[in-house]
Amino acid sequence: MKLLLENWNKFLREAEDSSENMLSDHRGAAEEIMANTLSAENAFRDEAGDLMEEKELPPSDIEFEVSQADSPNDDVVKRFYVSLNSGKRSGFLTYYTDEELRDMHLYLVKGHNAGFAIKTDGDIVSVHNNSSLKGLANKFLSEAKQGGGSKLDHFDGFLSGLYRKHGFTDVSEVYQWDEGYKPKDWTYDSIDIFNEKTSIYAHAVENNYNVGRLLTLTAEDGFEIKAVPADKVNQYRYGRPDVVFRKL
User: pLDDT band at residue 40, thresholds of 50, 70 and 90?
Assistant: First the structure.
């Protein structure tokens, strides 16, 4: 995922002076790259309010069926694929082929269309919940870490607070929003940039939010990024968050 995004950002820089037609040719690929980070937000959205109120949810009483990358279970692979693409918002997800899923560690909740995958490099992907189950974050993230999951990426928002709470505190990279690669069905929900539970920039912009010149902002975990504070605040206000890469 990160390599794909790096390649996409490289393309955006190189295509800065190119025609709109050239950008259109690459938009489909860009949507696929970015869409995978939305599946976790959809899966854990029911827990956003509890996170804001600092409530502790009881652990979910669930069991997983597992397919390991070095010894894939074809039945689990097939059902994981169906589970991943069974939701109303499945268009937001990256559609891995059966062969690609076979090369990942798959965790599928028994009897439900919910689960997650871990690539062999520790990247947690395809987190999804297309079932009636709620309160899955603690169980999913705990199991993912035990299974070798060590990094993930997401749009800034309530997932920042959730993932930080579960130990993913190392902000290794940030890609700023670009209209060129937004998912076509993006809903533009406003994000509170001043709340540390919903943004990596909470403390970076709290005293200079109306500054209209380029500054070096120190975001979460000391990550430095060049941005215009006033523009960044407006960007988040209109539902255009940056992409955050995290590690344990």
Answer: confident
174: part of which helix (H) or strand (E)?
strand 170-175
Please give the C-alpha separations between residue 58 and each of 104, 134, 163, 164, 169, in angstroms, as whole numbers.
Answer: 29, 11, 17, 19, 23
Query: Which range, of 13-22, 185-194, 199-208, averages the lowest pLDDT?
Result: 13-22
Give me 241's structure tokens. 């968050």
DSSP-assigned letter for residue 123: B
Chain centroid, CA 82 distance in Å: 21
Q: Alpha-carbon torsion 224, 200, 247, 96, what sign?
A: negative
The answer to whether the CB of 120 falls within 8 A of the CB of 69 is yes
With contact defined as beta carbons under 8 Å apart, do 42 and 89 qualify? Answer: yes
Rg (CA), the chain: 18
Position 12 scores a pLDDT of: 47
Contact yes or no for 102/70 (Cβ under 8 A): no
Give Cα 99 to chain centroid, integer Å: 23
